[in-house]
Task: structure prediction
Amino acid sequence: MTQIGTDSDFTSRGSTDHEQTIQSIAPHFSHSHLCPSVSSVPTPSPPRFSLVIPARNEEKFLPGVLESARVAVGRYKGGRERIEVIVADNVSTDRTAEIARSFGAQVATVEKRVIGAVRNGGARLARGEYVCFADADNPLHPESFNEIDRLLAKPRLTGGGLGGWPERWTPGLAFFFAVMYVPLVWIIGINGGLVFCRRADFETIGGYDESMLFAEDVNFMMALKRLVRSRGERLAADSRARVTLSVRKFDQFGEWHIVKAMVRAGWWYAFDRRRVGEWADEFWYGDRR
Result:
């Protein structure tokens, strides 16, 4: 069972029991948004957006992402108090949780080492009308939340992804985006980066599939697309406020690793699925995820 723990500074009571489940502690949470200093002042109404950031041992990258979120929250025309930020800490062994709290974010501690479970664990604390998901190494655009509002004002648009561009370009990255990423986004009509949807839709879908070691985000967006299309609605697949995508995996595994990995994963999935699990464990769950 996914366990959620929080620091007592973020609750309205002085309990030190951090092993309770989300169902029992959620009603006691005070709203805390990103601001120059930590705030625990409750808001009079539920937030419009809940930003969930899954993280494991992200003390190096998380400060930059939370700082970018702080700026985006401060520039939101609807008021900074309408946004809450939740870091879903996957039992990190470094200062990830401490850094999150120092920025005023709520912290959900999730024990299950599957990225879908970590996203879901953070979402269980969400109180916003819309739930948003961003990765712990991809800084947000300063106009992220204003851009989401702009997109939501379009007829029948109820969710989507803001997309992203890499922090720098190399021949391998350019090939991946031109030949694989951009055509895939165009063909299937979904995108990533900063993903957003109605919290009610998230709950209807059942969140992210916790049986998937990777590509759970693509699976979720496809399920969301089917849901909204059944109501005659649509998703945003592009925006004016793309996130900055980290290229650390390219640095770690090589410039052409993603092309090779996708070919190998397809072969293994067809003929030796055990190898898919081994590859995913090394690639996605080695140090952080």
About this structure: DSSP finds eleven helices and nine strands in the chain. The first strand starts at residue 49 and ends at 55. The radius of gyration is 18 Å.
